[in-house]
Hints:
The complex is a heterodimer of chains A (401) and B (290).
Chain A: H1 2-27, H2 33-39, H3 59-82, H4 90-97, H5 108-142, H6 155-168, H7 170-178, H8 183-206, H9 215-239, H10 244-251, H11 261-279, H12 281-287, H13 291-296, H14 301-323, H15 329-341, H16 345-369, H17 378-395
Helix pairs in contact in A: 3-5, 3-16, 5-11, 5-14, 5-15, 5-16, 6-8, 6-9, 6-14, 8-9, 8-14, 9-10, 11-14, 11-16, 12-16, 15-16, 15-17, 16-17
Chain B: E1 2-8, E2 18-24, E3 29-34, H1 41-48, E4 56-60, H2 73-79, E5 80-83, H3 95-100, H4 104-107, H5 115-127, H6 143-156, E6 161-165, H7 173-190, E7 193-197, H8 201-207, E8 210-215, E9 218-223, H9 225-228, H10 231-238, E10 242-246, E11 253-257
Parallel strand pairs in B: 3-7, 3-8, 5-6, 6-7
Antiparallel strand pairs in B: 1-2, 1-4, 8-9, 10-11
Helix pairs in contact in B: 5-6
Amino acid sequence: MVERTAKPVKVRRCRATVSRILASQVARPHRDPSAFARKVRSIPIATRPRRSLPAQGSFFPRALPFILCIALLILALGASVAIGAVPIPIGQLIQLLLRRPEAANLPASLSSIIWDLRLPRTIFIALLGMSLASSGCAFQGIFRNPLADPYLLGIGSGASLGVALAISIPAFSLGIGSGKPGALPAIPLFAFAGALITVILVYRWVRPGRGSAPSTRLILAGVAAGAFAQSLAAFLFYRTREQTQRALSWLMGGMLLGGWDPVRITLPYILLGIVALIVMGRVLNLLQFGDEQAEQTGLNVARARWVLITAASLTTAAGVAFGGVIGFIGLAVPHLARLLWGTDYRRLLPLSTLLGASVLLAADLLARTVLAPQELPVGIVTALLGAPFFFYLLGRRESVM
Amino acid sequence: MVVEDLSFRYPSSKENALDHVSLRVSGGEVVALAGPNGCGKTTLLRAACGILEPLTGRVWIPGTTGPVHRLPPDRRARLIGVVPQMEKLPPGFTAAETVMLGRISFHGWFGPESVADREAVQSALSAVGLDGLDGQFVETLSGGGQQRVMIARALAQEAPILLMDEPTAHLDVRHQMETLALLHDLAHEFRRAVLIVLHDLNLVSRFADRVALLERGRMIRCGPPVEVFTSETLSSLYDFPLQVIPHPERGFPLVLPDGDEPSADAYGVSASAVEIPPGGENLHRPRKRG
């Protein structure tokens, strides 16, 4: 209370001082700055007594969105594990997750459903949602373009092409089915290589020298490169006949594999990428002011952009490697988060990441239950629900970016 | 800061935007750049802050190893604070957050904001008269408020050289005087070097120690405003009749546009070319409905 009443008084006094100074200045010959300068004690930056900035908002309102997102994620994780062909009540679910089926007198098959089927899938879907939303959010920031998403610049499609190459090499393609060691962990690497090569080609092609990157041209080139890579990937899939069905379902956003393998293999890549993006929130903020201003305030724009693109590509590629091509999460979730909680990337990026996991879990739940026992690829659900939502966002364009 | 024989050409243009310009701005003086639209003032400022790579010549800061455009950006930001020509600021950031971005060369990409950073931001905000508005979102500030945020960001960089492109364009008369008085003091009392693009010649003559006049990329005159500002020089530079008279009380030159009456014909342009054609909207006759 005291602070609030004190502040305006101080401002007024300060202004009065300045106008007094200016009044005295008018009466003096302008080439004699000494008397003028002596009085302007409020102005010199080096000598003024300094006050710290007040903390911006108290802890609770700032933490509220995070609490909300985490609660939502826990809810989505629980629902995803509990709901399915065999619904499992919450009490039993907790017993099973604590690995105590005997205590609740539950059959071993139920434990197997949870531990071998639903839990790995749920966790992988959550990781996938996180990877797509965080990289989408990062790309929107890097290119200051509201239409950016993980498939922009051909990154998602480049990753698909990498996976398609991996699968069409006979040794690998057999490996996926038979669980040959070494074959599976290589898939995200292929995806990452495909993604990064595509980005480098696009980037180098459009921007040969120094200076600010022409965002629009970069994106157009990325779209073209993406279409090319995507078609090439589809072509490769058609060539390897025995895998076609599974591969095409993967291209629509179906899972390539079940079990814990995808989680185990992609977890380090996805976490590494997301952590890198989250700690670069300040750099993303600075990029919003344009390349020139960012550079003038001391950011190495070219390097920052490369680090960000690499981290975002790593995250995307790891997710795409086993999760397939899933649209709209990377585009719509960051916009939703921005609409709710503002543009500050230091907050926006972690919030989008959490929200992305919840949204994709919900979409996956729908994909599994709508036509049960048949399963839809998740990509179909996200596009069916995401596109109308995106139209809604476009309708209230002013509030988005 | 030394500018030596600097030339620059934009890729799409055939003419040099800057043509062998040499200029020296020392700590302790305010140097103004003036000249008609498109004469290269902004280009010179952008080259001076290292954003543009010059065609010939170099910009060099004594005590550093190479030309400015080859210095790493964080080193550059600690040497040079820049207020660019007014652009729209991105929404969603508060004034304090925007000014804090000027401190990135001090705390790096990931480092925490130190007490010194927060204090520098607070001091810079109060120096431009934005005390108590640090929590305000920049897009809700007026044009002048946004411009003062940009000035505060450059001040928060605590750099010995300040480059400003029309920092007073959107400010009211009081804030114009305050801002320029602040720059004047930073130069004279704290030995900063200030290079500033100003269109208002009267502000130039009041606050600048020296003024450099640019005409189509070439520097035609450079010196104290009292010497440089003459009716002949300015009239021929702007291709427009200008009168220079001494200030009645304080003696510095005042620049007044000449011309007898406020009619376009007196200035060689004509309003009849953009007249509303017959049948257009007219204030005197009510529009016929039909």
